[in-house]
Amino acid sequence: MSSPGDDSRSKRYDRQIRIWGAEGQSRLEAARVLLLNCGPTGSETLKNLVLGGIAAFTVVDAARVSARDLGNNFFVAPESLGEPRAKVVTALLKEMNECVAGSYVETPPEALVEADPGFVDRFDLVVATQMTEPHLLHLESLCRSKGVKLLAVRSYGLAGYMRASMPEHTVIESKPDTQVDDLRLTRPWPALREFAASFNIEALDDGAHKHVPYVVLIQQALESWRRERGGAPPSTAAERAEFKRRLAGMRRVGPEGVPMEEENVDEALKAAFHAWTQPSIPPEVRRVLEDERASPAAADAHTPGDDFWLLAAALRAFVANEGGGCLPLEGSIPDMHATTDLYLRLQRVYRAEAEAHAAAVEAHAARMLAAAGRPGGGVAAGAARHFCRNARNLRVVRYRTLAEEVAPESARGEALAEALGEEGTAANASLYVLLRAADRFHSTHGSFPGVLEGEVEADMAALKGLAQQVVAEVGASGAAAADDYACEMCRLGAAELHVVAAVMGGMAAQEAIKLITRQFVPFGGTLIYNAITSTTSVLDL
Question: Residues in domain THIF-type NAD/FAD binding fold (predicted)?
């Protein structure tokens, strides 16, 4: 029986629970987030996470509310001028969701990370905003050593930057936009064959005939076809057309010779491709199964609550044995025209087979753990069933370190040169180069290009030179950043515009939720947002 608190929670988060489910929401409600710098970019990012219902957040920022903040940050007020920005932003964010705990530390993020490296241990995700490359490199090294996810976000004039960093991110529920129903009509199991054969379709009256599930119509037509064709399903275009005519011939004809309207036959014709579509393993999933971590050795590294690689190894064993080269059955069926009783009976047939497959995968996992001398360290209850139900959706995203991206010896210069040379990505790749050049300018001059009045022209020339230096160092021969974007970056003087910060905050919160819930697939490169052209590019560098 649900408690009043559960009912209140469901009402509060109803729309988002429909997207990522109760399990995703539970992960979100357990998440602890650290925000470094709470200007508009950080505040907008955290706002979306607070509204989503994270467990707690901590803001680290040393600035005091200034007139500039009043112009670009909705989470400060005129009466808070001169007060600690972290304190003001934290108070206003807490008002947005009383279920979320919030705290703040009034100190420069860079100093805190340097003085207390263990501080990040308390968090599941660090959102670092408006940090320059040298500080990000240090922070990334620290977060990776602690096993904490890092999301770097930045708004700079009319440009935005975002990059996640962690060794790898595993996804069970990637939730693709479209997916074919897993009906397995070309490889039916005994219970499905028996269910389909139990219908004497010719003997049914018209009322009962129009409520036969289309799965049964296709299965019976396919069994008949195979008996006539030596067991082979329709393969050529001509055979498939003939098979569909056979299905259409199952439609009843009225007294005057007019074909009757039967939705189940219409559904069977639309789903006829199931009669010749063999179950297959998507390329992304095959890469997971062939990964060196998806082996019995996964049992040695298994930790309670993190079953991905152990279950991937067990799934690999299932595919090689009981599955006969196929993934486990998902166990769900689509809506179809049928009586409630027939639909539920068919649903039970699919669910029973899916449960058997999940049990086999769980047994493989148990054997691997036992072989590793850890017989008591089984997978979490229901984990194998959940894993098998989403077996077609498994994904693994691996991230290069920021150090690998920027170091000349490991940078992907050819990829950058290609991005700078292609019309669709040239502008955004130029912004990427110029952001890195701006950080170099800051390291040398102590300010960003264009900030000091009267220095814009000189800063512009220096920025262009530094951009050429960045391109040359990474080996992007023959490429160059666009000069007009260098002018634009100097003209805006590193301003953190709210219109850009709001967009970056929305995208950053979306990526953060992907990382926290382990649903949907986060991008694996460096995202650049161009507010001039309203475009984004993900650069694989």
Answer: 13-534
